[in-house]
Write a sequence for this structure.
DNA sequence: GACGCTAATTGCATTGACTGCAACTTGCAC
DNA sequence: GTGCAAGTTGCAGTCAATGCAATTAGCGTC
């Protein structure tokens, strides 16, 4: 394998640790002083890194506070959805898929919880959070296009994608309301039920 | 009336014109060169105003391109919704309310169309657009809280708000797909139907 | 254990968005 | 035309974010 060298060991570990240090510093400082009274320079210094390095890890200050990272879906979950499974009923399968995303979203549950709390005091973060949803939804729409050949649906990809995004956020909110019991994915069925209830008037 | 002086005439007119000039310049320049290759300074100059004044009209460059403004709902539509009407069925009434918002959203239909087009080439604008939805949804959630006393619902305000946001965006997309026929509100029933279709699996 | 290779960090300079403030201009009422 | 209030502008300053070039550090090889 010439291209994909195994990411060694110490390198990967340091990368993970530095990333976490930045998130931790960002969340702590912003919690203490508020989003606009903390500079990237301060966050970086608190994590023992240079400002320039901060931007090697995150695209923006907000991203660091939310601990945003690339999401990647389980290969098998993905393959199953694309081929029209697991149940064959779109809404049911979508639920499974969203659960897959949610579980991979926040590897560290306390970090996710802190992010949720900060969103309440800093509305701008909600916007960034929703913007991040968009990326997941984009990924998801690609899967939908593939699945469509195996199992067509009269509903637009856009709409399905938005519903998936809605479910992600609704689950997160239900999770927060529950006092952060379990993980966000555990509250997904509740979100679906609420949505059905509303649509049935 | 000591406080609310009638906004005279020439003042209001100029304000409207300058606002439009800024939006027009922003949309034109961004369409020609792309969002990141146009500065606020250039937009302001093209509209014959100072950079500083630009920021008296808009909070950010993106807002100007989208022509974002404060939304305000018809007082009667609002009152009727709060008191549990017009039909008494939440989903139906929500649809009416969203239609009300949509109609007030873009006073100038061509401007809205140009904004939609630019969102396709500049994904960052989609995020801003969705963030703007958030504000509308916030407004809406206040109404929901009021309505709740007149007519309780088992569904959370959050969820209802998100569905409203979804309907707004879905209508806009359907409008775009139709080649911008009529206005966005005209495509709302279509959006609702799609949503129902999906939920019924 | 030195050698080279590549990934990652860092400093530096620069651009441009955005804000606060204070002076100024302009529309409007009397 | 005089005075008031709204709106505009210039100016100085802060800070996020990016590109570039130099340096450092991990890792495999001999």
């Amino acid at each position: 394998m010439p291209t994909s060298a195994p990411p060694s060991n110490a390198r990967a570990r340091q990368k993970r640790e530095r990333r976490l240090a930045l998130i931790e510093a960002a969340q702590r400082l912003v919690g203490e002083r508020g989003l606009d009274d903390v500079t990237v320079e301060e966050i970086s210094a608190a994590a023992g890194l240079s400002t320039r390095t901060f931007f090697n890890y995150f695209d923006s200050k907000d991203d660091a506070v939310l601990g945003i990272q690339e999401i990647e879906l389980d290969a098998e979950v993905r393959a199953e959805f694309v081929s029209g499974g697991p149940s064959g009923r779109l809404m049911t399968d979508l639920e499974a898929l969203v659960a897959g995303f949610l579980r991979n979203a926040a590897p560290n549950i306390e970090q996710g919880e802190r992010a949720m709390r900060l969103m309440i005091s800093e509305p701008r973060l909600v916007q960034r959070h929703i913007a991040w949803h968009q990326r997941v939804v984009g990924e998801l729409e690609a899967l939908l296009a593939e699945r469509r050949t195996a199992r067509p649906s009269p509903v637009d990809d856009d709409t399905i994608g938005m519903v998936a995004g809605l479910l992600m956020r609704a689950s997160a909110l239900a999770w927060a309301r529950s006092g952060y019991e379990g993980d966000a994915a555990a509250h997904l069925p509740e979100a679906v039920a609420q949505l059905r209830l509303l649509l049935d008037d």
About this structure: Confidence is low (pLDDT under 50) at residues 1-6 of chain A.
